[in-house]
Amino acid sequence: MTRKNNKKEKVDVGFIFQITDKVLWNVFKKNEIGDVLLPFVVIRRLDCILDPVNIKVRNAYDNFKEKVSEDKLDPILRKAAGGLQFYNTSKHTLESLKENPKTIEIDFNNYLNGFNREVRNIIENFQFDKVIARLVKNKLLYQMIDAISLVDLHTDKVDNHNMGYIFEELIRISNEQSNETAGEHFTPRDVIDLMIKIVFSTEKEKLSRPGIIRTIYDPTLGTGGMINLAKNYVLDELCVRSKNKPEIKTYGQEINEQSYAIAKSEALITGENADNIRHGNTFTEDRFPDKHFHYQFANPPYGVTWSKDADFIRNESANPAGRFYAGLPGTSDGQLLFLQHMISKMELEAGKIAVVTNGSPLFIGNAGSGESDIRKWIISNDWLDCIIALPKDLFYNTGINTYIWFLSNNKPKNRRGKVQLINANVVEDKGTGIKGFSKPEKRSLGNKRNKIDTVHVEKILELYSSFEEGKHSKIFKNNDFGYYQITVEQPEYDKKGRPILDKKGNIKADSNKRDKENIPLAKDIEEYFMEEVLPHVPDAWIDFDKTRIGYEINFTKYFYEHKPLRPSSKIKAEIELLEFGTRNQKGIVELIKELLN
Predict the structure, then answer these.
(1) Has residue 243 got a pLDDT over 80?
(2) C-beta separation of 319 from 288 below 8 A
């Protein structure tokens, strides 16, 4: 199949707005349009694909429905459908439904029930019955079927690849129109673009070899945007001129029923293996238990409790072969659980991960806590490659600081034993001349006020690829993130100022004076104690039994810019300015000029 490189030529979604204006206007709210259009587009695509094989399927159904069990009938009907993953046994098509307007509701339900079980499951997860009920109530079902049947989605008009772009565009428009909840299941395309280009920046040569098969997986799939955009990038941009294009297989798991239905629908209508899109709770029901993947992308929910799954997760964490053996974070936030799950899914010798988090997984938890132990496990195994601090206000439902973690179990030699941190949390400001890594949106979409343009992606990609120290890029050794947390004790004294002894004759520690000190792993504990602690508390000692090793990643500390105190002359000038009051306007102007110099 020939692939063009102009995405604008591929996407023709004018029918979305025509149907919205002619049929759905004033009945469905703007943020509900996707709930109507997405399932109808899926049904129309299936209807068009089945057009040449409908008669064969129905003949096979009539011949065998009374003779074999349902489980044996299914492969017969798939064969009659030319090996497709779906079929329809009813006597209707969307075109034929229009012949009887008076029985449109009954006939349409018969038509839907004629699809195979997998398609019916998708339709059910769309909660399509509620959509149909509202269309019937407002006497719009016939108009909707008439409008969608005018959209030609036959494969000779729209191939699978272009159908994917149409469906992706429809998802994007639907999510942006319902941006108050979009962040739960929808990651902005500019963020995904950055993730994809960083991950695949080192992969072009490998992917251009003959016979390459690669897998892409998202354990928090949403509507499938990340895996589909990643696949499209590889085929349409990275390897577009390569003689040997890789075979890319996409996989994902999603807990939300409607999002799962959208993602599975896209796989079905674009010719992908729809069985690779699965429904369920990733924590308690891993639908790919024995599978490993080359590339993984995810944007797990922030600050979402896993308390309802706690018993299952704690049991698995006790198993050395389990996904969560490295440690458990607090039940109020499962981001580090998703990260452990993804690490367990890495292809054993060539796995790469890109995952979005908020700031909590970087630093929350003291030495010895589950969060710290997980960070220690990741960094000590040399899986952490890079973390990028993103500009604020990129997401639809949150304005908090966000980060992308990049992990690899096969880092290039020059990056082994090291971690790169990139601070891209700078927004362009034309008024001050600040050149940043994003720019303000023309109009806000929920909390999304900034966007990352192509030029910004290239700037960040250059920082990553060059792997050099600079204002926005810092490189650390793995151990630089580790520290000893020591417990410093001081004696408890009696009224005469003498240390109190315990029953064994040892000096008793005063719990009220107990303190903790964090010492970098590169430092000698006793030397640090002698130099930094004893000069201030000469009677103190270390309780070595309580020493713990912790790991944290403190972006604020690493990218802190010291701002020197203002000169005393300017402070004096400010005071004089206040004293002048309004008595000498000319003098005030001169002082202001001095302050600005």
Answers:
(1) yes
(2) no
Give the pLDDT score at 432: 63
Long-range contacts of 278-282 (CB under 8 A, 24+ apart): 278/252, 278/253, 278/254, 279/125, 279/253, 279/254, 279/255, 280/253, 280/255, 281/255, 281/309, 282/219, 282/220, 282/253, 282/255, 282/338, 282/341
**Which residue, chain included where needed, has tokens 């024995």?**
290
> Measured in whole angstroms, how far is the alpha carbon of residue 282 from the centre of its chain?
14
Q: Are 396 and 446 in contact (CB under 8 A)?
A: yes
For residues 99 and 82, give the distance between their C-alpha atoms in angstroms, rounded to a whole number.
Answer: 28
178-386: which CATH number, 3.40.50.150, 2.70.70.10, 3.40.50.720, 3.40.50.2020? 3.40.50.150
Enumerate the β-bridge partners of residue 503. none
Backbone φ and ψ of 224, nearest 5°: 95, 10
Residues 6+ apart with CB under 8 A from 504: none
Q: Give one DSSP letter per residue of 75-103, joined into a string.
A: HHHHHHTTS-S--B-SS--HHHHTT-GGG
Question: CB count, 10 Å around CB of 146?
Answer: 17
- The percent of residues above 70 in pLDDT, for the chain, comes to 90
CB atoms within 10 A of CB 496: 5
Mean pLDDT of the chain: 90
Token code pair at residue 337: 């659980």
**In the numeric block, which tokens belong to residue 57?**
């399927």
pTM of the model: 0.85
Residues 407-432 have a mean pLDDT of 90
- The more confident residue out of 585 and 377 is 377
Per-residue 3-state assignment (H helix, E strand, C coil) for 437-450: CCEEEEEEECCEEE
Domain ranges, ordered by start, for the chain: 7-167, 178-386, 481-558, 565-597
Angle 373-379-384 (CA atoms, 0-180°, nearest 5)? 130
Q: Tokens for 517, please give them.
A: 């000190």
pLDDT value of residue 382: 98
Spatial contact of 342 and 226, defined as CB atoms under 8 Å apart: no
pLDDT top residue among 237 and 8: 237
203-206-207-209 Cα dihedral, nearest 10 degrees:
160
- Which range has the worst mean pLDDT, 43-47, 139-143, 160-164, 415-419? 160-164
CB 225 within 8 A of CB 171: yes
